[in-house]
Design a protein that fits this description.
The protein is mainly alpha-helical and 374 residues long. The protein has two domains: 217 residues, no CATH class; 141 residues. 69% of the residues lie in helices and 0% in strands.
C-alpha cells in the first residue's frame, strides 16, 4: 500500500490524506469546544445552592445536556485520537504528499492549531477531573503531533516546511515549540525527538524573521501589482454569481423551506454537477483568503447546503454532499458570535426543522462507504 501511495503521490492517497486531515480538524476542534461547554455545565451543577433554586425541569434538561456532551466528547475524542495516530504513522512512511505546495501550509496550520490548544495559554481551561473517562489524553496527543512535525521535517528535502509553519498567522508562535519541548521532557520523551523538534522550531523562527525582513525591504506593493484573487475582489464577484445560482436552484423546488418536494423537478435534476462542485470549491478556496468573504452574504449558500446535502433524491452524488460538509467545516467558524461549528449548524433555522438523526446517518454512510442507505 505504501509503495502505491509513494508512486501515485497525487491520486487516491492524497484524497485519503485530505479526508484524514479534515476529520482530525473537525473531531479535535469539536471535542475541545465541547470540553469547554462541559466545564461550564459542571460549574453550574457544582454550585449546589444556585442549582437547587432552579426549576426541576430546567435541572433535568441541563443534566441531560451534560450527559449528552459527555458522550459526544468521548466518541469524538476517541476518533480524533485514532485519526492523529494514523497521521503520525503515515507521515513517517510517506512524507511527499504532506509537503506538496497545495498541502504543506494546510498541514502546518493544522499542526500549529493543535499545538496551540495543547500547550498554549488556554490549555488549563481544558483540564478535566477525569480525562481518561473522555478518552482525552493530552500528553499522548501532544507526542503524536510532535511526531508528525518531526517526520515531515525529516522528509523536507527542499526546506519548505519551516516557512509554511511560520506563515500561519492564526496559530503560529515560536514560544509554543519550547513549551511543547518542556512538556515532552517532563513525560520522558526520547531526547532525539525533542532535539529535532526544537531544531524545526528554530528553522521556523528564522523563516519568520526572513519573511519580515523581505516585507520590510519591499515595502508597500503598488496597487497595479496586487493579485486580484488574493485581494478578494475577483472571488467576491464569483461568489456573488454562484450565490445567484443557488438561489435560482432553490427557487426551482419552491424556496427555502422544508420538507423538500416528494419528487425532484426536471430542471433541478438536469443541472450539470460541475456547477455545484465549482461553487463548493470556490467557497473552500475563499475561506483561506480573509478579504474574500468581506461583505459577501453567505446565508444563501448555508441554506442551500443544509437543504440539499442530506437529500439523496435531489443530489445523488455522495462526493458533492461530502463536499458540502467540507464547506461548512471551512467557513462556518468565520461567522460572527462563535467558533463552534456544531452550535452554528444545529442552531440554523432550517436545521431546527430538519436535521440531526437522518443527516448524521447519511453522513456516516457516505464517509465510510461512499453511498447511503436511506
Amino acid at each position: 500500500m505504501f509503495q502505491i501511495a509513494k508512486e501515485e503521490e497525487k491520486g487516491v492517497y492524497l484524497n485519503f490524506l485530505n479526508f484524514l486531515i479534515n476529520d482530525s480538524i473537525y473531531l479535535l476542534d469539536e471535542s475541545l469546544n465541547k470540553i469547554l461547554e462541559l466545564k461550564e455545565l459542571e460549574a453550574e451543577m457544582s454550585n449546589t445552592a444556585e442549582w437547587e433554586r432552579r426549576p426541576a425541569q430546567e435541572r433535568q434538561e441541563r443534566t441531560r445536556l451534560f450527559q449528552s456532551q459527555e458522550n459526544i466528547i468521548r466518541i469524538d475524542m476517541k476518533l480524533a485520537n485514532e485519526d492523529v495516530s494514523m497521521l503520525a504513522f503515515t507521515s513517517e512512511q510517506i512524507t511527499a504528499p504532506f509537503l506538496l505546495p497545495e498541502m504543506v501550509e494546510r498541514v502546518a496550520s493544522m499542526l500549529n492549531y493543535f499545538l496551540l490548544q495543547l500547550v498554549g495559554p488556554q490549555r488549563k481551561s481544558l483540564s478535566l477531573k477525569d480525562p481518561e473517562k473522555y478518552e482525552f489524553r493530552p500528553k499522548q496527543l501532544l507526542k503524536q503531533i510532535v511526531y508528525i512535525y518531526v517526520h515531515l521535517a525529516k522528509g523536507d528535502t527542499e526546506n519548505i516546511f519551516p516557512a509554511a509553519i511560520s506563515k500561519d498567522g492564526r496559530s503560529y508562535n515560536e514560544q509554543l515549540f519550547s513549551a511543547a519541548a518542556d512538556v515532552l521532557r517532563r513525560i520522558g520523551e526520547d531526547g532525539r525527538v525533542i532535539r529535532e523538534f526544537i531544531e524545526l522550531g528554530a528553522k521556523a523562527k528564522v523563516a519568520a524573521s526572513e519573511a519580515m525582513d523581505t516585507e520590510a525591504v519591499l515595502g508597500e506593493i503598488p496597487d497595479e501589482f496586487l493579485d486580484p484573487i488574493q485581494d478578494g475582489t475577483l472571488i467576491q464577484s464569483a461568489l456573488s454569481f454562484y450565490r445567484l445560482m443557488v438561489v435560482w436552484l432553490v427557487g426551482l423546488v419552491g424556496g427555502f423551506k422544508m420538507p423538500l418536494p416528494s419528487s425532484c423537478p426536471m430542471e433541478f435534476a438536469s443541472m450539470p454537477e460541475h456547477f455545484l462542485e465549482d461553487a463548493m470549491e470556490l467557497l473552500i478556496f475563499a475561506s483561506r483568503i480573509p478579504k474574500a468573504l468581506d461583505g459577501v452574504l453567505l446565508d444563501d449558500f448555508m441554506n442551500f447546503i443544509i437543504m440539499f446535502m442530506g437529500s439523496p433524491d435531489f443530489i445523488r452524488n455522495p462526493y458533492l454532499r461530502a463536499k458540502m460538509v467540507e464547506v461548512l467545516n471551512c467557513w462556518m467558524p468565520r461567522r460572527s458570535g462563535s467558533s463552534n461549528t456544531a452550535t452554528l449548524f444545529e442552531g440554523h433555522q432550517l436545521s431546527l426543522e430538519y436535521l440531526v438523526r437522518n443527516l448524521l446517518k447519511l453522513y456516516v454512510d457516505i464517509e465510510f462507504t461512499g453511498s447511503h442507505t436511506q
